[in-house]
Design goal:
Number of domains: 3
Number of strands: 16
CATH class of the largest domain: Alpha Beta
Structural class: alpha/beta
Distance between the termini: 43 Å
Order of helices and strands: HHHEHHEHEHEHEEEHEEHEHEEEEEE
Radius of gyration: 24 Å
Shape: globular
Number of helices: 11
């Protein structure tokens, strides 16, 4: 049934019976519960936790947004060894690394043929250095995945703000897509401000996305509005109470002539943005012309700034672990930035914090308690999972996972011990980490509402 037909029925409900309206809503919910991710989105979700590395002339100037006028001679990471980066991020349990191949200042960390504002003009390795290449090689050797950030905004290039800039940008993108092995993600920044000539650029995302699909078909694309992964709306590690990966397609970018064609956001959804607290709630998706699968990434830096500032300290272990729980354990992925110092090395304080974070994650989630799980149905799209431990134990967490290859379906659930409700939740999705902190021998997970038959991939107790 077309969603537009459902909207018409709801708006004009006086023309149909209440029973017919209820059936149409049920049909719509079943449709919403069967919007499926692509294989690349499933692979991205399974990564869960990966690193950002912000490195550019900003590292040497102390700026967060460079001007584009920086002298390439300042970029000289004399002690750079990307294998140390990989070792540090792996110690935290991260499975990938995304490097800022070019930030807003336009300086390119690889041997590009598009501009001299690049490693070719840096004293590092006498102008022959290639930080992108070194990072890609270190990731491959270390067994983690590699991705690139390529800022569309370029404050150095004189053709920014003209149609020619899209040719220039596509040439840079093609170099990164074809010269550095498999990429798991291409990360687009949404910034679009004036270039050196005072003009703004109309980005040709249709063309950018087509290039990525051509050369790196398994790479997910991050942008404010997708198409594969979207922004959570903040850079502080904040998360939504209910995180839906099935959202109105009007909020997500799709390539013209490709998978979807998105009209301008208008009508009943015009007030929404991808940071809206109720982005996937029934009250909003009913007014979409179609739904798409587009999960959210939570990104933050280990310090207040995205680039290294010696005066800043890393955030506390408690804050980082809490963000991990709310992101990886809240149907999102966690992208944590670590910024190198001028010499190219990570600050030892950051390295130590990553190691401590990894140890805490391992301690919390490496050894599930032995238990039996029995399922029984409890009505249409509702069910109960009775969990019995071998003996009375202190339970810190219950971790739930849906089989999202079939769709995201759970609307609300509770975790009970006897008559006590220990946790109330909304969505589950790829993974939901539920804090319990109670000594019990049995638990009950009660799925109180779902969009279709609920299929859990895993239940684990820690």
């Amino acid at each position: 049934m077309l969603i537009s037909a459902l909207r018409f029925s709801i708006i004009n409900s006086k023309n149909i019976t209440m029973g017919e309206l209820i059936m149409e809503i049920k049909d719509f919910l079943r449709y919403a519960g069967n919007v499926k991710p692509t294989e690349r989105q499933l692979s991205w979700f399974d990564m869960e936790f990966y690193a950002f590395v912000h490195f550019s002339p900003n590292t040497y100037t102390g700026l967060e947004w460079g001007t584009g006028k920086e002298d390439p001679l300042i970029f000289n990471p004399t002690e750079l060894d990307c294998r140390d980066w990989v070792k540090a991020v792996k110690s935290a349990g991260m499975k990938g690394l995304i490097l800022t191949a070019k930030h807003h200042d336009g300086f390119c960390l690889w041997q590009t043929d598009t501009t001299v504002h690049s490693m070719k003009s840096s004293p590092y390795k006498n102008g022959l250095g290639d930080v992108v290449g070194e990072a890609a090689k270190a990731c491959a050797e270390g067994g983690i995945k590699f991705g690139v950030y390529l800022s569309p905004w370029d404050r150095n290039n004189v053709c920014y703000g003209t149609p020619e800039y899209n040719d220039f940008y596509c040439a840079q993108l093609a170099e990164l897509l074809t010269n550095y092995g498999k990429l798991f993600m291409v990360w687009f920044d949404g910034a679009c401000k004036e270039g050196p000539n005072g003009r703004r650029q109309e980005y040709d995302f249709d063309r950018y996305i087509s290039l990525i699909r051509k050369y790196q078909p398994n790479a997910v694309i991050f942008n404010d509005h997708g198409p594969d992964v979207c922004w959570c709306g903040n850079e502080s590690g904040g998360s939504r109470f209910a995180e839906w990966a099935v959202v109105p397609h009007e909020l997500c970018y799709r390539c013209k002539g490709g998978e979807d064609i998105v009209p301008p956001l208008c009508g009943d959804l015009a007030h929404m943005y991808n940071s809206d607290i109720d982005i996937g709630a029934l009250s909003n998706i009913l007014y979409s012309s179609r739904l798409v699968f587009c999960g959210a990434e939570i990104d933050m830096s280990i310090r207040p700034g995205w680039f290294y500032h010696e005066s800043e300290d890393p955030y506390s272990l408690e804050r980082l672990f809490d963000t991990y729980i709310r992101s990886v354990g809240g149907n999102c992925c966690f992208n944590l930035n670590i910024s190198p110092m001028k010499n190219g090395c990570f600050d030892e304080r950051d390295v130590r914090m990553l190691r401590e974070l990894g140890k805490l994650i391992d301690k919390s989630f490496s050894f599930p308690l032995s238990c039996s799980v029995k399922r029984r149905e409890n009505g249409d799209n509702r069910c109960v999972f009775d969990i019995t431990l071998e003996s009375e134990r202190k339970v810190s967490y219950v971790v739930l996972s849906e089989d999202i290859a079939l769709g995201q379906r759970v609307e609300t659930f509770t975790i009970n011990s006897g008559d006590s409700v220990l946790f109330r939740g909304t969505t589950i999705g790829h993974k939901r980490i539920c804090r319990i902190n109670k000594t019990v021998q049995s638990l009950r997970v009660h799925i109180s509402s779902g969009r279709d038959t609920v299929v859990l991939r895993n239940i684990a107790v820690y």
